[in-house]
Amino acid sequence: MNRSSQREAILKALRSVKSHPTADEIYAMVHDSMPRLSLATVYRNLEQLVNAGMVTAIDGAGSRRFDGNAAPHHHKRCSVCGSVSDIFSEELHHLDNAIERLLPLLECSACSVEFSGICGKCRAAETPFYETVSVRTERGRVNTKNEEICYHE
Ligand SMILES: [Zn+2]
Ligand SMILES: [Zn+2]
């Protein structure tokens, strides 16, 4: 298997999931179809894809994760399990534009915004469903908007 088809297979595996996997997880995903591919090669290819702008690297708490979705979006990291999910919101485009305008004024070259909170899975594991519903009803406000824009694996 030549270098470009290796890279192609890694990109395809990354784009097939929404979980923002680590390099180790991507290695595990492609290992069955490419048993001779080493972890070091997966790391190298991922860095090349990031440098080419085809893949986004997400650095935060814990290890570096990768995202094959090129559409502009933001991320939410679960403060319990560390999973990263996508946030697609029109309103956040305004934030991005404001940051872009501010960067030269602040003499900065880049800025990354990451949201944190508890993911749907961890929330479900912690709080029985009926409790969640009653708490929301007491507050008189059901926060459905947030759920519409967050896609959890
Ligand atoms: Zn979680
Ligand atoms: Zn993403």
If you had to describe this structure to a student in words, what would you say it looks like?
- The chain is an alpha+beta fold and 153 residues long.
- It has two domains: 1-63, Arc Repressor Mutant, subunit A (Orthogonal Bundle), CATH 1.10.10; 71-153, Ferric-uptake regulator, C-terminal dimerisarion domain (Dna Ligase, domain 1, 2-Layer Sandwich).
- The chain has seven helices and six strands; from the N terminus they run αααββββαβαααβ.
- It has helices at 3-15, 23-31, 39-51, 91-105, 120-126, 129-139, 144-149; strands at residues 56-58, 65-67, 74-78, 84-87, 114-117, 150-151.
- The strands form two sheets. A four-stranded mixed sheet has the order 5-3-4-6. Strands 1-2 form a two-stranded antiparallel sheet.
- One zinc ion binds at residues 78, 80-81, 83, 119, 121-122.
- One zinc ion is lined by residues 20, 67, 69, 73, 75, 86.
Concise synopsis of the structure shown:
48% of the residues lie in helices and 14% in strands. It is of the alpha+beta class. The chain starts with a helix and ends with a strand.
CATH architecture of the largest domain: 2-Layer Sandwich
What would you call the shape? globular
Give the full name of the CATH homologous superfamily of the largest domain: Ferric-uptake regulator, C-terminal dimerisarion domain
Strand order of the biggest β-sheet: 5-3-4-6
Order of helices and strands: HHHEEEEHEHHHE
How many domains would you count in the coordinates? 2
C-alpha-based Rg, rounded = 19 Å
End-to-end C-alpha gap: 31 Å
